[in-house]
Amino acid sequence: MRKSRKWFLSLTYPPKIKAVREGRCDQTIRAGWQKHAGDEVAFHGWEGVPRHSRWSWRTEYFPLVEVIYIHVVVAGIIMQDTSRLNLGWIWYPWKHPIVEGIAERDFIFPPTGEELRRLLLSMHKVDSLNGSPFQILRWRP
Fold it and tell me: Which secondary-structure segment (H or E) carries 42?
């Protein structure tokens, strides 16, 4: 059995920072597939330039209650089906209501799939052919 881990994650997106610190946001999207349900996450901000300055604040640890594995491609999100049907992997275009719901829950402004796409592509290198692995992490504030 895998031992749970604790992770410190930085936040740099202003609308999300305020919402996480106030306990209104319970989701983040992160590159890679390292985290698992049962792990704990805490968040922090930076005094100045990210990764080149001191932490300005940090939260307590929150247990991850749901981890959804996704692939981000230029045309949308390929997402693991988490319903009872267990249909495997499903592709959703950026303008799909499910993707827009993910953007809204992630405090993306405006809460659209297209803005989520813009933000993810600006922050990460995405492999448009194979899809880059990301995770939707959800916790209980």
Answer: strand 40-46
- End-to-end Cα, the chain, rounded Å: 26
What's the Cα-to-Cα distance from 88 to each of 68, 81, 84, 110, 128, rounded to whole Å?
A: 12, 5, 11, 30, 20
Closest CA to 77 of 95, 92, 97: 92
The architecture in CATH of the region 6-139 reads Roll (2.30)
Q: What is the pLDDT of residues 68-114, one digit of tens each?
A: 999 998 899 999 887 777 778 999 999 999 999 999 999 999 999 99
Tokens of 113: 């799939």
Domain boundaries, the chain: 6-139
- Integer angstrom CA distances of residue 118 from 18, 24, 72, 111, 124: 21, 23, 12, 12, 10
The secondary structure of residue 35, as a DSSP letter, is -
Asked if residue 14 has a cis previous peptide bond (ω within 30° of 0), the answer is no
**Rounded mean pLDDT, 54-65:** 95
Is there a contact between 132 and 71 (Cβ–Cβ < 8 Å)?
yes
* Residue 122: both structure tokens together: 């600006």
